[in-house]
């Protein structure tokens, strides 16, 4: 078993998964529509702020400060949470975190828990672990609920059911909820059905499980940002609240939060202000949960922090802006990335969190992810904390090919040797001109592998009869 | 004598698109530049760098810097090769900093250095412009190529919808993720065809080879042509289609 189950076990490499996804006409239609809409809205919301670039720089600076002094900020957070009546747990990996949460749920005497949408718990496969331990976890975020009821996997960080359209959602609800045989596919009716279904669960649950968007090291306050209010129900009604939080989610002080509460909503949902921002500090007698547990999760974050180039991925605030602008994500959807972190951020985060896996299939997937990009740079342009995703992708590509002996590495070495010398380059150009023999009207239509990867869908121009350098030598040399 | 300019033709253009490089020479000489083609140039190493072979890229970067030593400006008809030199080289080796500072993509050199937007060109065709990713996001050329096109006599410029979306080339991405690359290309071609343009132009022959390769495979009759060839075309010596 892999040490860090960041990926879904058994997932194929990106090119193979993408091939299947691309042939799904419905999926491509749903995604193109959804990403185009949200992309346009984000651009408008961001354009309203004259100091957007400076906000991004602030977000980057605050996160970098936290990451370079993570140990002391984490201890500060632990002390503050403990002083306010919370209990802090430390989990090295997914297995440890799942074990802690299952134990806490059992101690609270619950067999059912309600959940606030959370990437950290999805990353560690908490729902499945609870299920194995006899506890059923109910997702209360509408999109997570759609994924859960459909026995599906998420395909987007913010909108995990983005690959579904409303008639598909209606079908899922009809088959998995009671009393909704006549449900139509209007958004209002679908939302009402989910509301009635969930309300019963909120009122009976003894334990809620959440993630965290931010935690303030100074005060021990934990922040969850959501749009539906379902999260707030979970955070306030049950007796026990268990929060699983990645160790990188810290900000030093309250005033640092203001930067992120501007950056996050505009980047993720294109809203000026987030609808439901819940903040709690330890426990407050007579108000909200009586017990609060904070599980601090490493699961590959420390090893990511050790990489000078790759560590910037830990600045991520899970806004999804990079997914929504990514031309690759728009075509393949999120599930092709084999993990709960899809899109450009997934392509740099998953391989780092999961590095060191001993499962060969997972290792192959992790190596394929940094290549799932044309390096167009749209992700870097929108990232609210200025993660230079293209540079990290290139860095991780370097790690993926390091020490490999493949036809590609041999070809690259040969190309490099050729290009070290103008004379050898001229010879290679002359050699390439044999392609003219198999060309018609200046186009090569068909090449053997790996050239077929190009000519399957595109013509290749035949090399010129006289290269530019040859022409220059002849006429000007 | 005008500005001493070195043409950085790029290995792809040198081999596959010599007309583009000749057009750059013609254009720059028409604008009073003293153009040279340093014979030592080969490849900037971008393919190696972007595919993860950094050590090879460092070697190529060092020899590229040497090949272009001593010129006032280095001009490339490519946003991505110019971007490689200017934005990536300084991270690879400190001996490349000087060439990085002196390297320009063609439209930047025309507008920012020579200060011209009307280059005296004539091109009586319906044209749409695809802003290539690296020229747009790495170099930030912005409106410069469009400014140049707007001043070309006879040219009917049609806006391309979804213009800033990648065409799906991405170097070795086009081979490693061929199906995804082709899906991106299909959408780009749809947008090009919607414009009913006769010619799609851009500042990079790599992206044009991709878009043009798709358009040719589908026998659309739409021609891909580098910006330099449009700008070099005049009433006296108009651009002539070669097969």
CATH architecture of the largest domain in chain B: 3-Layer(aba) Sandwich
Strand residue content of chain A: 5-15%
Tally of helical segments of chain A: 23
Biggest beta sheet attributes of chain B: 4 strands, parallel
Q: What is the topology, as strand order, of the major beta sheet of chain B?
A: 2-1-3-4
CATH level-3 fold name of the largest domain in chain A: Rossmann fold
Largest sheet of chain A: 6 strands, parallel
Number of domains of chain B: 2
Q: Assign the CATH class of the largest domain in chain A.
A: Alpha Beta
Low-confidence stretches of chain B: none
Spatial separation of the terminal alpha carbons of chain B: 36 Å
Which percent band covers the strand fraction of chain B? 5-15%
Largest interface: A-B, 67 and 64 residues
**What is the element string of chain B, with H for helices and E for strands?**
EHHEHHEHHEHEHHEHHEHEH
The helix content of chain B is 40-55%
Through-space gap between termini of chain A: 64 Å
The counted number of beta strands of chain B is 8
In CATH, the homologous superfamily of the largest domain in chain A goes by the name NagB/RpiA/CoA transferase-like
Number of helices of chain B: 13
What is the share of helical residues of chain A? 40-55%
| Rg of chain B, Å, rounded | 17 Å
């Amino acid at each position: 078993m892999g040490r860090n189950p960041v990926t879904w076990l058994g997932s194929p490499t990106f090119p193979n998964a993408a091939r299947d996804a691309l042939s799904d006409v419905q999926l491509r239609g749903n995604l193109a529509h959804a990403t185009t809409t949200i992309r346009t809205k984000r651009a408008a919301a961001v354009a309203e702020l004259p100091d957007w670039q400076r906000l991004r720089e602030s977000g980057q600076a605050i996160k970098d400060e936290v990451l370079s002094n993570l140990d002391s900020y984490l201890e500060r957070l632990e002390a503050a949470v403990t002083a306010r009546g919370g209990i802090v747990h430390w989990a090295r990996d997914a297995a440890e975190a799942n074990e802690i949460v299952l134990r806490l749920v059992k101690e609270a005497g619950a067999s059912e828990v309600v959940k606030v949408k959370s990437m950290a718990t999805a990353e560690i496969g908490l729902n499945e672990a609870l299920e194995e331990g006899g506890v059923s976890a109910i997702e209360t975020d509408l999109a997570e609920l759609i994924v859960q009821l459909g026995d599906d996997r998420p395909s987007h960080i913010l909108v995990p059911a983005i690959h579904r359209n409303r008639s598909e959602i209606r079908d899922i609800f009809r088959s998995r909820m009671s009393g909704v045989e006549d449900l139509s596919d209007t958004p209002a009716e679908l939302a009402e059905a989910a509301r009635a279904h969930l309300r019963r669960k909120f009122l009976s649950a003894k334990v809620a499980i959440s993630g965290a968007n931010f935690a303030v090291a100074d005060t021990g306050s934990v922040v969850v940002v959501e749009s539906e209010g379902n999260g707030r129900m979970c955070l306030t009604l049950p007796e026990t609240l268990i929060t699983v939080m990645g160790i990188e989610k810290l900000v030093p002080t309250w005033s640092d939060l203001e930067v992120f509460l501007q950056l996050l909503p505009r980047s993720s949902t294109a809203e000026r202000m987030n609808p439901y921002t819940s903040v709690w500090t330890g426990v407050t007698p007579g108000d909200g949960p009586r017990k609060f547990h904070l599980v601090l999760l490493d699961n590959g974050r420390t090893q990511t922090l050790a990489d000078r180039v790759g560590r910037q991925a830990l600045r991520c605030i899970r806004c999804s802006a990079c997914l929504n602008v990514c031309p690759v994500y728009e075509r393949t959807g999120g599930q092709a990335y084999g993990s709960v972190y899809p899109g450009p951020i997934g392509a740099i985060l998953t391989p780092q969190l999961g590095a060191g896996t001993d499962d060969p299939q997972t290792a192959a997937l992790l190596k394929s992810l940094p290549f799932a990009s044309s390096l167009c740079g749209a992700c870097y342009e929108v990232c609210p904390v200025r993660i230079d995703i293209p540079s990290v992708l290139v860095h991780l590509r370097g790690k993926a090919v390091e020490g490999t002996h493949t036809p590609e590495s041999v070809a690259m070495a040969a190309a490099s040797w050729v290009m070290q010398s103008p004379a050898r380059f001229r010879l290679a150009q002359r050699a390439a001109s044999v392609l003219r023999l198999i060309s018609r009207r200046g186009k090569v239509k068909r090449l053997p592998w790996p050239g077929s990867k190009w000519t399957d869908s595109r013509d290749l121009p035949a090399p010129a009869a006289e290269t530019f350098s040859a022409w220059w030598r002849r006429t000007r040399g | 004598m005008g500005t001493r300019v070195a043409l950085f033709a790029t290995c792809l253009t040198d081999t596959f698109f010599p007309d583009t490089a000749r057009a750059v020479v013609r254009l720059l000489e028409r604008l009073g530049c003293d153009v040279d083609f340093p014979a030592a140039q080969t490849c900037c190493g971008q393919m190696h760098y972007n595919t993860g072979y950094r050590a090879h890229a460092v070697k190529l970067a060092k020899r590229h810097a040497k090949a272009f030593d001593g010129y006032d400006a280095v001009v490339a008809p490519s946003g991505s090769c110019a971007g490689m030199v200017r934005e990536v080289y300084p991270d690879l080796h400190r001996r490349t900093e000087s060439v990085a500072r002196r390297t320009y993509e063609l439209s930047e050199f025309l507008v920012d250095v020579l200060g011209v937007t009307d280059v005296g060109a004539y091109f009586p065709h319906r044209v749409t412009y695809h802003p290539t990713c690296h020229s747009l996001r790495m170099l930030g050329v912005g409106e410069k190529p469009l400014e140049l096109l707007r001043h070309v006599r006879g040219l009917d410029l049609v806006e391309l919808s979804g213009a800033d979306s990648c065409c799906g080339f991405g170097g070795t991405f086009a081979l490693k993720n061929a199906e995804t690359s082709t899906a991106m290309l299909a959408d780009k071609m749809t947008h090009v065809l919607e414009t009913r343009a006769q010619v799609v132009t851009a500042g990079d022959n790599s992206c044009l080879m991709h878009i043009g390769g798709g358009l040719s495979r589908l026998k659309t009759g739409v021609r891909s042509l580098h910006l330099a060839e449009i700008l070099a075309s005049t009433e006296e010596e108009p651009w002539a289609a070669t097969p």
